[in-house]
Amino acid sequence: MSGGAHPAVPAGATIGFLGGGQLGRMTAMAARTLGYDVRVLDPEKDCPARGVSSHTITAAWSDAAAAAELAQGCAAVTLEIEQIPRPSLEAVARTAPLHPGVDAVFTVQERARQKQWLERHHFPLGAFRVVTDAAGAEAAVAALGPSIVKAAMGGYDGRGQVRVKTAAEGRAAFEQLKAPVCVVEAFLDLHTEISVLVARRADGTSVAYPPSRNHHTQGVLTWAVTPSGVSAEMADRAESLALRIAEALGIVGLLAVEMFILGDGQLLVNELAPRPHNTYHHSERAHPTSQFEQLVRAVCHLPLGSTEIVRPAAIHNLLGDLWDGGAPDVTKALAIPGVRVHLYGKKEARPGRKMGHLSADGDTPEQALERVCAAYDALTR
Question: Labelling 73: which of 142, 196, 275, 330 has CA 20 to 30 A away?
Fold first, then answer.
C-alpha cells in the first residue's frame, strides 16, 4: 500500500476506461492481470476492449450522463483518447477520481491550446502560428515558408493536416480542412524523431522511459525501436524535458512527448498525448514494466515499475490495407525468430486503420528492427 493522501487502490476494485480501442484493450488486460475489474465507455458497440470489460457502455463522447454512469462504482477512471468534451470529463471527475485530470486533458486535447501552453511555459518549439481563417493561413505560410497546416481539434495518424509550400496553398489547405482553428507549423530540418513516455503518480513520483526512435509514413507511425541510438546526453535532455512537461501539466497517469532532433542538435517538442502511445508498444518486450501496466500502477497509486531497457525491441504497425483481400497469414510473421503478433480484434478493416502491430526483440536494436521489418515484409508477399 502507498501511504499518505493517496492509498493504493486494492485488487478487486473497478477501473473505468474512457475509450475501448486498442489502447484501452491492452491497458484493460494489464489491469486484469493486477486483479482489477474493468468498465469501458466507447462509441463503438464492438470496440476492441469489450471482450476484456465486465460492462461496456456504448455512447458518444459528448454524452456526459453516460460518462457519469461509467464512473459510478469506479475507484479510478483513466482514458485512452484525449479528445473527450470537457463536460463529459467533468461529469466523471464529480463521481470518481479521473486520471489524468480535467485541466490537463483539456490543455492537451486541442493543438492550438497545447502549443500555446507549451510556449507560455517556455518549452522549446518550432515556429508556428494559430489561425482562424483562410487569410490568416495564407499570411502564416508567407511568413513561415513551407509548412504543415493542421486542424486544431481532431485529426491524427496523418489525418486533418495538409503539407503546403506556398501562401496560396496555405489558404487552400485551411479551406480544405474546414476547421474553425488551425495550427500552421513550419517545416523543420529533421534529423531524428523520438518520443519519451513519462509515468507520474498523484504524489508527484515520476519515471521516464528511455527515448524511442520513430519512423512515420505520411503522418502515421510505421515503426519504433528502443534503444533509440541517440547519445546519452541527448537522451538525458529528452527525458528531463518530458518529466518537466508532465510536472507542469500535473499529469497523473502517462504523458507521451513526441520530439524532433534537428540537424543542428536542437531538441524541440512536437506533440503531447496524455495516454498510452503507439511508439511505446515495444515496452511489452523491452522493459520490465509495459506502458499499459505502468498506467494502471500510476492511476491506482501503486509503486511505479522499472523503465530500464532489459532487451532491445521494435514494433511495426499493421494497417487495414493489409486486409485487402482477406486477413493476412500471420504464420509467415511468426516464423521469424523473436517476433510476436498483436491483433486488436477490430471487426472492420479500412485503409490506414490500425488493426494490430508486430513486435520483436533482438540482441541489438538493429536486429530487433530488422526482424520486425522482415516479418512485416513477409505479410505483404
Answer: 275
In-domain check, residue 106: no
Binding-site annotation: residue ranges for ATP: 111, 150, 155-161, 185-188, 193, 216, 270-271
State if pTM tops 0.90.
yes
Count how many domains the chain has: 3
CB 254 within 8 A of CB 291: yes
Residues 49 and 176 reside in one and the same domain: no
C-alpha of 372 from chain center: 21
As a whole number of angstroms, the distance between CA 13 and CA 296 comes to: 12
57 touches 41 (CB < 8 A): yes
Find, among 271, 278, 276, 277, the residue nearest to 257 by Cα: 271
Query: Which residues make up each annotated binding site?
Result: 111, 150, 155-161, 185-188, 193, 216, 270-271
In this structure, are 207 and 338 located in the same domain?
A: yes
Mapped onto helix, strand or coil, the DSSP state of residue 11 is coil
Per residue in 272-312, pLDDT (tens digit) is 999 999 999 999 999 999 999 999 999 999 999 999 999 99
Distance CA(64)–CA(88), nearest Å, equals 4
Partners of 58 in the β-ladder:
42
